[in-house]
Each structure stands twice: as C-alpha cells, then as structure tokens.
Design a protein that fits this description.
The complex is a heterodimer of chains A (about 325) and B (about 260). Chain A has a single domain, classed as ABC transporter involved in vitamin B12 uptake, BtuC. Chain A is mostly helical. Chain B has about 260 residues and is an alpha/beta fold. Classes of the chains: A mainly alpha (about 325), B alpha/beta (about 260). Chains A and B meet through helix 7, helix 8 and helix 9 of A and helix 2 and helix 3 of B.
C-alpha cells in the first residue's frame, strides 16, 4: 500500500510539475517538450525489453504505425479526436505486436535486434513505395480535437502538451507498478539468467512476448502524439536512424528508472536542437561524445543516479 | 539394470536411457526405479554420465532412446519448464542464480514463478506475504542475513544453499542436486548437507544427488548408483557399492594396488 501511495504522490508531483512548466514555457519549448515526452514513450518500450535483456532496433515500426494510423484516420475517416486516434493506434500496435511478439521472443541478442530492425525497414520500404499514402513525402495530418474542443495556435500546442503530460504520467505510474510486479521481477531474472527462470518453471518466451507487446503499444502512443504534434507523417518514422535514436535514449537512461527515460529524451531533443543551430554539420558528433561520456561514467545510464538496486530494494 | 525396491509406483523411473554425443556414449541403457522419499546418490568420475543423467531427467537433454517416467507419467520429451512444473526440480553444480538481483529477490522470483498462475503484471512481487514466505525460506537455510546482498558478495556455500532454496520454492516431489557441496570449504560441507537434507526430508522429497565426497555419500544416501563410461556399474547400499571392486577401481580409486610382476 505504501508503494502504491508513493507512486500516486510521485505521479501527482510529476503532473503538477509538467503542467506548471508547460504553462510557463514558450511555444518553441512547448513543442520540444511534447516531442521529447512522446518519443520518450517509444524509448520506454525499449527499456521494458531491456529489463529482460533484449534491445529492439526496430522500435520505429510501432512509432510509424501509430503515426500513420492517426494520419490515415484523420485524412480518410475524418476522425480527429485525439482520444479515439490514440485508442485505435494502440489497438493496431497491440494486434501487430501480438503477431510478431511471440515470433521474435524466440530470438536473443543481435538476432532479436536485427529481426526487429528488419520489420521496421520492411514497413519503411512499403510506405516509401505506396503513392496512395504519399510515398516518401508522407501525409499531412489534420490538427487534433480534444473531445469536441478544437484549439488553434498556442492553445493547440498547450492542449497537446497537457494531453501528452497526462499520458506520460499515467503510463509512468502503470509501468512503475509493472516493474515492481511479479512480471517485472521475473523480467529482471530473465535478464540475469534465462536457464534459472526456465528451471523454476516460467516461460522466458512468454515474458519476452508480453514485453514486446507492451513495447509495441508504447511505440504506437508515441507515434500518434508525434505525428499530431508535427502535423505530418512520413516513412522516415520507420527508418533505422529513427529507431537508433530510441535506442540512444534507452541506453542513455538505462533500465532502472522511468523518469530517467523522459529526462534522457528531452536532453536528446535539446542537444539536437541547439547542436543543429550552432554545429549544423557536426551535431551527431556532439551526440556521440555525449553518449560516450554517459556510458563511461554511468554504465547503467542516467537512471542509476536516481535509483539504486540494493538491500532488497527494487 | 533394474533397481526397483518399491511396491508402489516409483517416484522416478528411467528405462533404457541412451544418449550419445557424436562417438561418445554418455548414457548407455540407464534403467533405474527410485521409490518415493528415497535418498540416492550418484557417484562416478568426471565424464561418467552422472550429469547427463540429471540433464535428461530434468529435460535439458532428451535421450536418444528410452523413457523417463515421473509418478508413472511419461516426461521423456518435456523441457525443463514442463518438468519443473510437473514436480521435478534441480540444483546446479555451478549455482544458477540471478546475478543482478539480491538474495531476497532471487527467492521472490522463485516464489512468483511457483505460483500456479503465471507471474502477474498487476501483482506486486514484494507484497508482505511474499516477503514473509521468502524470509521463512531463507531462515530455513540460515542465509537470511544475506537477504540484501548480490551474488558477487556471497560465499560458495551460501550460493549453493540459495540455489537449492530457490528450487525448493516449487515444492518439488523429486529433487536432483548436482554436486551440492562442490567448491564449498571442507568445514562447510556437512553443515550445508544437514540443512539441505533436513529441508528435503521435511517435505518428503525424493532426492538424488551427484557427489564426489564419499563421506557425504555414506552419511546421507540410502542407496548409491555408481556410473562409469555412461553405464551403471553398481547399484546398492552405500557400504556395498563402495566395497565393490569395480567401483574401487573405476570410481573411488581405492582398489588395492595390484602386485607388480
């Protein structure tokens, strides 16, 4: 009960901080924060898998599916309600993750990483060739509505940011509960010793498949919000460099802490924005050096600053 | 070779198990029948086939030929998870622990998995009832003081006990211990075996353990299977087996030296 109330208190504090910060932020920073938080959800999906020892290099698959489902629903079915679009995208990712999850759960290490990457690249190839979906140019996405409310200008940016904040806090709380659950602990055990887990009577494959499906849904939510915030979706969402950025954030954050993933994602967006401004031709090098420093100084990621797993603590 | 000494259904029975790795035959016609609540030891030199036998019974390896029956049910083709779920657990020569988890968390994992329902996403792993049960188990094996430690901070003896404690969380009917005292300091061997056997006999667990220390074999087992070259060359009470000339020659190395010509 104490842990549950701790999660509630932390969630309310995080929500207050996000709302308060959002109201004070200028437009450009509001957009950057929305994108940073949305993409953090996608990276959080990788973190869910990292806790069981797997790293997906194809998280762009679900990011792209989420974004395209929202774009297609808005353009072809006239659906602009963000709640409905999020729900449909999550269901689409759940279905596709449910198909591929049990298959990919048979693989480990580089095989899992490459197979997940290949799926996202197949989607990239298909979307690039489909002129009916805009080909490589992609689609413009209509501005979202919020249960009948159709804001414009700063109100739209703020509404989208607040929606993202609520989603982020809700998912953070659910995942914290999940990380502390039986499934969460078994995932950590899988990461440490698969043989032991099987010899205790649990299915490593089942654990990994569940994590993949959770990861898929998180990717979808991140994709919807990013697509709606940018107002445009294109096949680059599924490209390997996009997936690489999600892996970058997951490694930067580590698997120990959920807030660290959001911090890492926002740092990436900030570094990218400012490096792009001041070092337009070498900003990737700045990112690379930054990641190198983090790996050397904090091998378990930024999360190890907030979260120590000792004395029976999780 | 049949070893059935029980009138009821044996806890564990193997019939004609064969296993080869290329040209090497690791198991040749292994037939045993282990009655319930028996404590048997498996002895033999390295490569004699003891661990291959344990691996076949626990589903890690599948025999090329032969049948494995657990309480009369065929488990020959089951994998480790299904075998464990059926009621056969094992410990390992090199303890298989979750290195990134604490001692308490290792036991909590074992308890969560031992639950008949699959590990839940919405049920806390560290709820007080589970922690109490985990502490009970740690106390039973007298390793509760290590609850917050990681595996790298544990002695070999504590690791062995934790490995066995985790296997016991599933309330097995049959337990196979692969060298439970190997790598353990000499003075720790008997205390460790006392703790382990006390826990196993308290739950009426049929036990087979692989062992190289003949003092432990004679003290704790009521029957001994001596393996050599993938075969069982002796199968009897400890004193009988250990005085068998073949066992002395091929297993224990205690045969009197032959007169040189």
């Amino acid at each position: 009960m104490k842990a549950l109330s701790d999660i509630r208190v932390a969630s309310l504090l995080a929500l207050a901080l996000l709302i308060g910060g959002g109201l004070a932020l200028p437009d450009w920073a509001l957009f950057l924060m929305t994108i940073g938080l949305a993409k953090a959800l996608v990276s959080l999906g990788i973190v869910v898998q990292m806790r069981a020892g797997l790293v997906s290099f194809g998280q762009g698959l679900f990011f792209c599916i989420g974004a395209y489902v929202a774009g297609l629903m808005a353009n072809f079915a006239g659906l602009t309600d963000i709640f409905v679009l999020t729900g449909i995208s999550v269901l689409a990712c759940l279905a596709i993750g449910g198909i591929f999850g049990p298959l990919l759960a048979n693989y480990r290490g580089i095989f899992f990483a490459m197979l997940s990457l290949s799926l996202s690249m197949i989607l990239y190839g298909i979307l690039s060739k489909m002129n009916s979906l805009g080909g490589t140019d992609g689609l413009n996405v209509a501005a979202p509505t919020f249960a009948g409310y159709a804001p414009e200008g700063r109100a739209l940016s703020l509404s989208l940011y607040l929606y993202t904040s609520f989603i982020v806090v809700a998912i953070g709380a659910i995942l914290r509960t999940g990380f502390d659950s039986q499934h969460g602990l078994v995932s950590l055990a899988v990461r440490s010793n698969e043989l032991r887990v099987e010899y205790l009577g649990a299915s490593v494959r089942r654990t990994n498949a569940i994590n993949y499906v959770i990861s898929a849904m998180l990717g979808g939510i991140g994709g919807v919000i990013t697509g709606l915030a940018i107002g445009h979706v294109d096949p680059e969402y599924a490209y390997w460099t996009t997936s690489g950025e999600f892996v970058f954030v997951a490694i930067l954050a580590g698997y120990l802490s959920i807030p660290a993933v959001f911090v890492a994602s926002i740092i990436l967006e900030l570094v990218r924005s400012f490096s792009n401004l001041y070092f337009p031709n070498t900003w990737q090098m700045v990112l690379g050096v930054f990641l190198l420093v983090i790996i050397l100084t904090l091998p378990n990621g930024l999360g190890s600053l907030f979260h120590r797993r000792r004395e029976g603590g999780s | 070779m049949s070893t059935s000494a029980s009138t009821g259904t044996p806890a564990l029975e193997t019939r004609g198990l064969m296993k080869s790795f290329g040209a090497v035959t690791a198991a040749h016609d292994i037939t045993v029948s282990v009655p319930e609540r028996a404590v048997w030891s498996l002895i033999g030199t390295n490569g004699a086939g003891k661990t291959t036998f344990v691996n076949m019974v626990t589903g890690y390896l599948h025999p090329d030929q032969g049948t494995i029956l657990f309480q009369g049910q065929d488990i020959t083709r089951l994998g480790p998870r299904e075998v464990t779920r059926a009621g056969i657990c094992r410990s390992f020569q090199i303890p298989q622990l979750c290195s990134e988890l604490t001692v308490l968390e290792n036991v909590l994992v074992a308890l969560a998995i031992a639950d008949p329902k699959p590990p839940s996403f919405f049920r806390k792993a560290r709820e007080s009832a589970a922690e109490d049960r985990a502490m009970e188990i740690l106390k039973r094996f007298r390793i509760e003081e290590h609850r917050g430690r990681l595996m790298t901070e544990l002695s070999a003896g504590v690791r062995k006990l934790l490995d066995i404690a985790m296997s016991m969380c599933g309330h097995p009917k049959v337990m196979l211990l692969d060298e439970p005292t190997s790598g353990v300091a000499a003075e720790e061997k008997f205390p460790i075996m006392d703790l382990v056997m006390e826990a196993l006999t308290a739950e009426n667990v049929t036990t087979l353990f692989v062992e190289h220390d003949m003092d432990i074999v004679t003290r704790y087992s009521d029957r001994v299977l001596a393996f050599y070259d993938g075969r069982i060359i002796a199968d009897d009470a400890p004193d009988e087996v250990l005085s068998d000339p073949q066992v002395q020659r091929y297993v224990t190395g205690t045969a009197p030296a032959e007169a040189s010509s």
